Amino acid sequence: MQAAHSNEIPHISVMTIRTRKFFGAIALVVLAATWALVGMALAQMPWIASSGLLQAAYYVVVGMGWVLPAMPIVSWMSRPDV
């Protein structure tokens, strides 16, 4: 048995940063659209729709909330090529 392969091909990244940014941008648009539609649907619930103050707080929280799931996508997109 051979102990080490001296003629191994070095690891080549399958996706370049340009490709990751393309797919990441698509994922971010899908995330934002889905987040907005679900947020608007949930805002129609009677216990939220009945109070203006509760609606304002809800929209602030939901409006900022999409950033948390977007952070890993942006981090993956900006990872440098190896």
Summarize the structure in words.
The protein is mainly α. It has one domain. Helix content is 68%, strand content 0%. It contains four helices and no strands. The protein starts with 16 loop residues before the first helix and ends in a 5-residue tail after the last helix.
Spans with pLDDT under 50 lasting ≥5 residues? Answer: none
| Oligomeric category | single chain
Helix share of residues?
A: 55-70%
- Tell me about the largest β-sheet: none
Radius of gyration over C-alpha positions, nearest whole angstrom: 22 Å
* Count of distinct strands: 0
Tell me the span between the first and last alpha carbons: 31 Å
Shape: rod-shaped
User: How much of the sequence is in beta strands?
Assistant: under 5%
Q: Which whole number gives the mean pLDDT?
A: 88
- Count of helical regions: 4
The figure for the number of domains is 1
Would you tell me the structural class of the helices and strands? mainly alpha
Q: What is the N-to-C succession of helices and strands?
A: HHHH
How is this fold's topology laid out?
Blueprint (H helix, E strand, L loop, with lengths): L16 H27 L2 H4 L2 H14 L1 H11 L5
Protein traits:
rod-shaped; mainly alpha; 82 residues; 0% strand
Brief overview, please?
The protein is mostly helical. Helix content is 68%, strand content 0%.
